[in-house]
Amino acid sequence: MIVKEKKQDFLSYLEDTSNLKGKARVLFIPEEEKEVSSILSQASRQRLPVTFSGAGTGTTGGRVPLEGAILSLERLNKIIDIDPKKKIARVQAGITLESLEKEVNKYSLSFRALPTEPLAFLGGVISTSASGVRGFKYSSVRKYVRRIKVVLSNGEIVEIPRGKFFANRRRFDFTLGKLKFKFNLPTYTSPQIKSSAGYYLRDNMDLIDLFIGQEGTLGCILEAELSLQEIVPDYFDCLVFFDREESALNFVEEVKALKKRGSFYPCALEYFDRNSLDFLREDYPSIPSGNCGVYLEQEISSSREKSKVLDYWCSLIENYSSLDKCWFAEDKKNKEKLLGFRHKLPQKINEFLRRHHQKKSATDIAVPSQHFREMYNFYEEKAKTSQINYVNFGHIGENHLHFNFLPKNSEESFKAKGYIWEFIRKALSLGGTVSAEHGIGKIKKPYLEIMYGKTHLKEMALLKKVFDPSCILGLDNIFSRKLLFENKNS
Ligand SMILES: Cc1cc2nc3c(=O)[nH]c(=O)nc-3n(C[C@H](O)[C@H](O)[C@H](O)COP(=O)(O)OP(=O)(O)OC[C@H]3O[C@@H](n4cnc5c(N)ncnc54)[C@H](O)[C@@H]3O)c2cc1C
Q: Structural domain boundaries of the chain?
């Protein structure tokens, strides 16, 4: 195991892409599971806070420690087994999505729910219940996690398979390893739309779903078993540029209706507003003049289907834009170029903020489909009055855009924060969620409190103490540590 005790040796672990800066006493990089177990059992006895670290691509300060120890999973990064017949992979939490995909591709398999950032670790992705560009079809990674191995805060290593431990409405009663658990779940229900806001809760839920999206507060994910899909034989990727925003939004609505009807529909449906295209033009000067863009990825299951699919898309696109304004990708190289284009935008935003020493002022809001236009118009209207540069882009297929202000100084940042609050309140009034995929971490806690109210946050704190009675794991993620200690005698 590697242990680093000098701050200058672990500076990069004290931040993530939110630009929140943390502090810690020590960094542990275990190379074996039993080392994780012994770090946690000792930390529990000494009441030493421990923050788990993935790749640090998170956007909410989740892996940023405020004190105590950092436990990085980077050396627990092996593929344990790939079963091509059952289409299952067993892998350790420190593997990057990029390496996972490369390895499973060798067996003609793919992890299609792959979130956009290839350097993220699987453990981080499961802990935030992340989703990717293909979320329109594949939704979040939650659906594909069949089993996890977790180290609890007392050091015990336990297996949580899907389909074994269910709540009876809101009551759990089960034995895990040597430990017996009996507890009531909080009383709120997670929204029925894409959401990563607080612990996932449903009546009669599966225990594994509580640990997916727990943001390092309930236990350390060591390993996961994932269900995979076959590599898609062929695809059609396209970036359509539109002269008018209204045409793009109508196009998107028609594509969403395809999904509702159950006919063929793309796996990715992503949006770039005019400012996003202008921002990207610095790197991609060939972006045609236009107002906004929609990226779609259509999987094609056979060569017989291909010409039908291409004809379909061409005629649909022509109803709203023109084919000479599109970028098409029908081979691997061009497909990667288009995906690179999509990925470039969040990267550029993070670079911009770092350059200007500003923290993220962005939304991760999703709203119910019927309210998407209202939310979109609200963004536009408020953005115009703000006079701060911004970009608005993302997973439009799931009614989930990332509105990002680009503040150049602290005055603009301060103003931007006020607008973000307005967006949050509007989304909640429409039945939306404050976080659809990035989680709450440390910087979105005030939004979660508005979403669920203090009573439900207190219930979350009580739930955490069931698995982490010493209150050492992922402190200040999801809810304030004050709630844990307020509840101490309850
Ligand atoms: C350019 C870019 C594009 C992105 N695109 C997307 C996207 O499309 N969709 C999306 O959902 N997100 C996206 N993100 C955000 C980020 O990649 C995800 O949140 C990802 O899940 C974080 O993984 P990580 O390994 O970097 O985790 P970290 O940032 O290191 O940690 C995230 C959280 O997980 C906890 N954690 C980490 N490992 C473990 C473990 N083994 N056990 C328990 N808890 C653990 C940490 O304590 C922390 O709370 C993007 C980020 C960037 C920079």
A: 1-231+454-490, 232-347
